[in-house]
């Protein structure tokens, strides 16, 4: 496992009883530790109208974290491209790459990253933008190459080598990533249903490009590591409560852990949550190491990205330390 790249996905989680400013400060501390521990990249995800997620202004957070670190790659997991003009994204990430050369990643998704009401507020009359995702990705690549057919230039942006990733949770995203010869990041931390099929399809249909000579798969998973299995299971109840809120539509900031989920969720809610959390690894360093070793052997992924919704900041930092130790053992 010591040869695999390992990274972090951060949603700037809003924690019950804490402020959004606290969330941003925790992200800085986490990114700085991740850099020191050898993590490859630190990504933020674009979401809107979610009380537990403060990473809506994704580009701003990427710049903030890049400015507080020195070597770790920082990027988006992802920018929801149908919410934005490809030209504006090219300019924004061109600015970031110019400020922090060789450290910026641009992961692209087609989902709104929000509910329909928020998507309407963002997109206005352009609610069918997701259907134009392949064309928008191509347009964005033209802006970076400096050869856009409309004659408009992205300044800054053109001529810069900014790695573009396709993010997804479906077979469509796998097909697009393969056709374009781009690295593929799968959202297996909350949408695991098509994970195995998608990465198999991506590998089978991959076409080498000037960006990538062979398939590259990143899988995002949930990780909660602690000194003991029991402590990790206890800490993970915050995540389980968060997913109950997603399922019921009653979202709240990340709550503190509880001794038992019994009585907090119904059997149906538990089943639905556990399906979404299929690729979650909770336990001691040794337990997580064994679980992840099996997962990576079965999937053959090139990179593991962990997201850890843990209420206590020190426990969160410790979880990422233990994960790094497990992966480097």
TrEMBL record:
Lineage: Bacteria, Pseudomonadati, Bacteroidota, Sphingobacteriia, Sphingobacteriales
UniProt record similarity statement: To bacterial alkanal monooxygenase alpha and beta chains.
GO terms for cellular component: cytosol
Molecular-function annotations in GO: oxidoreductase activity, acting on paired donors, with incorporation or reduction of molecular oxygen
Protein name per its UniProtKB record: Luciferase-like monooxygenase
Superkingdom assignment: Bacteria
One Pfam family of this chain: Bac_luciferase
PANTHER family (alphabetical): LUCIFERASE-LIKE MONOOXYGENASE
Record-annotated Luciferase-like domain positions: 17-302
CDD domains, per the entry: Flavin_utilizing_monoxygenases
SUPFAM superfamilies listed in its UniProt record: Bacterial luciferase-like
NCBIfam families in the cross-refs: oxido_grp_1
